[in-house]
Amino acid sequence: MAEIADDGGGHKKGGKKRAKKQSTKIDMTPMVDLGFLLLTFFVLTSTFSKPKSMELSFPAPPPPNEKPVEVKNGLNIILTKDHKIFYYKGQFNAPDNKEGKPATQLTETSFTPEGLHKIILEMNSYAHDEIAKLEAKVKSKQMADTTFKRLAMEAKGDKRSLTALIKTDDKATYRDVIDAVDELNVCMVGKYVIIDMSAPEYALLTEKIK
User: Fold this and answer.
1) What pLDDT is stored for residue 1 in this prediction?
2) b/e map 60-95, b = 16+ CB within 10 Å
3) pLDDT score for 34
4) Does residue 105 sit in the same domain as residue 180?
5) Please, are residues 148 and 89 in contact by the beta-carbon 8 Å criterion?
6) Is residue 29 part of a domain?
7) Which structural domain range is residue 104 located in?
């Protein structure tokens, strides 16, 4: 608010009229109030950046000398230096195993549509196909979203669905781990875990990357 202060006026000696002097005084109180109102408005309407994170589950370490549990329909993804990816399916079999099973061999792949993505889709075809059918029912309004989420989780957890085990050595990068997890999520894999590599697996990997 602007105020005009009148300093009064008068006449000079001799009867000559003297012009009135005026001073301007600006009251800044309303401007301060407006500033606080604008600041409050921007604070309440602004969207603050949220930290990007990924939730991962790590299993408890098994007791010493305990025989590992066989994973049904399992895919072992092994990450190492230079963004290299190796994999093998099912249980690890040492060259001198008592069951006489063929020794496990590592196969190299990559983060390409014809690489890890294709392998995961082939092994997780049951869950992928079931979820695709459920999505079609949701689009045609034959199923509620809550029912879809429940049935989709059941399909991912079915024993016919893929179980992925991500293993790394000390030369693998965090980026490769995150890319592997993202690939599993894209392919609708609901059962995956990051675990330590066993000594026989590490020895086999070392021979492979020499």
Assistant:
1) 47
2) eeeeeeeeeeebebbbbbbbbeeebbbbbeebbbee
3) 83
4) yes
5) no
6) no
7) 69-118+162-210
Question: Are 168 and 157 within one domain?
Answer: no
What pLDDT does residue 38 have? 86
Q: Which pLDDT does position 67 carry in this prediction?
A: 62
pLDDT for the residue 60 = 59
Domain co-membership, 201 together with 166: yes
The list of the chain residues with pLDDT below 70 reads 1-24, 48-70
Task: Indicate whether 114 and 166 sit together in one domain.
Answer: yes
Are 151 and 135 spatial neighbours (Cβ–Cβ below 8 Å)? no
Q: Are residues 81 and 113 in the same domain?
A: yes
Please give the backbone phi and psi of residue 3, each rounded to the nearest 5 degrees, phi first: -115, 140
Match 């045609």 to its residue by tokens. Answer: 140
Helix (H, G, I), strand (E, B) or coil at 168: strand
8 A C-beta contact, residue 116 and residue 110: yes
Sorted by sequence, the CB contacts under 8 Å of residue 111 that are 6+ apart come out as 83, 85, 117, 176, 179, 183
Write out the two tokens for 172: 């693998």
